[in-house]
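Q: Could you fold this chain for me?
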Amino acid sequence: MIKEVEGDILLSRAEAIAHGVAPSDHFNTGLAHGLREHFPVMVKDFRHYCQQNHPHPGGLWQWAGVGEQGKAITIISLLTQEPSEGAGGLPGKAKETHVGHALKALAKLIKDGGIKSIALPRLATGVGGLDWAHVRPLIDKHLGDCGIPVYLYVTYHAGVAAAE
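A: Sure. Below is the predicted structure, expressed as structure tokens.
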């Protein structure tokens, strides 16, 4: 079940938060920046993972840690964008094929990994540069019948908890 909500995804009560990034992303903009502020060790772990594994767009990376009030949280970085062209460069743009492959991998992770609820932003439409009208059907296709609550944050309101 996909439910559109408004609010601050960082305040989500979902078990996992998924977001789009590029391989070797620096987490400098958008939701990734907010995640970096809340979970700096996650970014360090992501950089280590990328250095060791050289991931390609279309995959994902999962991290588990502790969030607010000691609550366990899972962050799933969907590799929706092209990597930067050089060290320290800006991430490339997202591609619909990368988004589709990453969402397919996410659906498998949900099924195999026992995730009970997940929150997503308007994936790949900010820094990624894609049109929401093309991304939303991909979310419906891959997550529409995954059997768990999917909270789709369609409008961002800083510091406001969504009615999930």
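A (continued): Residues 2-156 form a domain with the Leucine Aminopeptidase, subunit E; domain 1 fold (CATH 3.40.220.10).
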